[in-house]
């Protein structure tokens, strides 16, 4: 048989899965620290839910895996975790608000594949549904900082506000019906550079003077207060600017700081207020590792009823993994490997004692000689091995080997446990 | 829009997800304690892998969700975790043996749905590939006991051996080519009772005397030693009996005990040695919650090459959840809910302090009054709330309320932290 994986998918081998699990567990811990509760939804959704007007949109629908069940019902593999959350909210009308949920799960896109583009990948979303307070936006930024601190990654969060961007475009003289397209062009500034943005704006029939005005504002320099002061001078009254100021004030109050960046746009059209992107400092991962914002209209529009203000972000588990894997050399969670030297019964007892003491333990089950076993433990990266020989057993001793230094010591099982627990 | 879930699927709401995660985390911890490493494989597999001769078989293939990608490639949603593991072993020929892996993930069956039959459900598999030693079988039994001990469930493991069953049927005079069908009938003893088994055997043209002989053996009473002695008296030499004796000896050596039950058959035809089923004592969950056995030929046959002895079991996460949920009343992982009384800035600081101390904390973001907030915290089952009023703040105090007893106490933030951490 020709063994192959489906195009655009991959196995996560133990060594990588250990690192991925560690990231996911850290994120979960922090989400719960901030009062978010876990949700799980099926990987399959009805196709009419995935394709409904205010769901993911046409572009994403083209990349949706479609299938039918035996009853000829149209289904699809979910392409994100937001649509399932909206459906869940809609199907549970008695739910208390705010609904603070996180969800970590696989999503699917039947699109082009590339070096870091897969057809199945992990999404990790945190959202508050039901609250329109900027304190919720601030809480999510604090959560982002706490999460990356726990992951030992130094990050900066850039924030902006969609209402403010609209006010800025009003000030520059861009008509309302053109603003969405202009914002989508501005979104390309970070990735493609200023010339691409200028070119796109020109194509949208915006005159050079107006383009200059927009670019000047996007280039405003200084610290948060200085930038806000300059913009305030121009646009005067702005709900968006007030929201940003309140967000930054709330953050300062709890000892966090975000970078206000009026050029931050975020590509998706459903954002209505705060937008945010998180970048790792001094990393070869240049793209954002956590992004999102406030989307006060989407859930209500999707459900066709009710008022569901919401704010949320999505963590890029795969990119975080890429940033961490250079640092992380841990290939196994196993602490010690027991090598019986014609002492299987006694060795099994010793392995059990180590496990009962809470130490992750493996033991040879292949009846191999000591050198083959050492090679095996080494290939797995297990940090300690213990040899169980007859002579040593008579003296109630074991020979513990530190695989890194190669140092060997004779000691009792209790001392082995003490050493490995410390 | 008519919001619906695909037939046979369900949402796992936060309250249930918390309990499910706890089970899964406990199992993972124990798997790693025994030296097993995690593996993740895609939810999609190529259809020709899923349908290959030694994969899941025709019955399961009828229930496989099929789909195509945009390149018209035939895919399917995986129906178990064993086929993906075999594929992974085949695609990684340099892998060191034994390969001790666990995998927890969703699988799909497009079959009939019922009260506890879903089209998407969680499987949780632990397997050792590459070792034919009974010490590996014993290790897996020890792992099962350790896992259920950690889950606070009292279980018994029933064990038998397929080779022994064949030897017993030889002794009874059943021809080799009929033995598989007879074993599948014996498998129904526990669920359907003795009369159904007798009826089925009759249909297979087995005479009454032979049926009587089989039933007598299946009904053998006594402790493990007594049962083994009786069978030994009849069948004399038996590799299967020797294996069972060695398994029980190994288990005793590490202070565990399994129940030898010669009537245990396990429905699947690929088992070649040890078979095991685990039952919870004194529970309304009567079905087995963890089952499996040794399958020394399957992986080699599937891959069309190599010798890959293997032993493994599958934990029934959903059934374990059913057994635990009566006991488990925990509705949230949030420990404390902060209620600002016109003190949002100060309250956010206090929430941050609690979170920095590692206490799972939530805070009102709806600007609600105290009684509405109390009702909210109560509906979520959060065990403590803290009121942050201006007057109390002046005295550096907070009012902590124990939601269960209703008792309220004035104390400093440090004392609140101390109390909740203890």
Structure description:
The structure is a homodimer of 422-residue chains. Chain A is of the alpha+beta class. Chain A folds into two domains: 14-325, BirA Bifunctional Protein, domain 2 (2-Layer Sandwich), CATH 3.30.930.10; 336-421, 3-Layer(aba) Sandwich (Rossmann fold), CATH 3.40.50.800. In chain A, 43% of the residues lie in helices and 19% in strands. In chain A, the strands form three sheets. Chain A has an eight-stranded mixed sheet with strand order 1-5-6-11-10-9-7-8. Chain A has a five-stranded mixed sheet with strand order 13-12-14-15-16, with helices on both faces. In chain A, strand 12 (336-340), helix 15 (344-356) and strand 13 (361-363) form a beta-alpha-beta unit. In chain A, helix 1 (14-33) runs antiparallel to helix 5 (134-150) and helix 6 runs antiparallel to helix 12. The relative contact order of chain A is 0.11. The model of chain A has no long low-confidence stretch (mean pLDDT 94). At the A-B interface, helix 1, strand 1, strand 2, helix 4 and strand 5 of A face helix 1, strand 1, strand 2, helix 4 and strand 5 of B.
What's the layout of helices and strands?
Two copies of one chain form a homodimer.
Chain A: H1 14-33, E1 37-38, E2 44-46, H2 47-50, H3 58-62, E3 66-68, E4 74-77, H4 82-91, E5 99-108, E6 120-129, H5 134-150, E7 155-161, H6 162-172, H7 176-186, H8 189-192, H9 194-203, H10 208-218, H11 224-235, H12 239-253, E8 259-260, E9 274-280, E10 290-294, H13 298-303, E11 310-315, H14 317-325, E12 336-340, H15 344-356, E13 361-363, H16 370-380, E14 384-388, H17 390-394, E15 398-402, E16 408-411, H18 413-421
Parallel strand pairs in A: 1-5, 7-8, 12-13, 12-14
Antiparallel strand pairs in A: 2-4, 3-4, 5-6, 6-11, 7-9, 9-10, 10-11, 14-15, 15-16
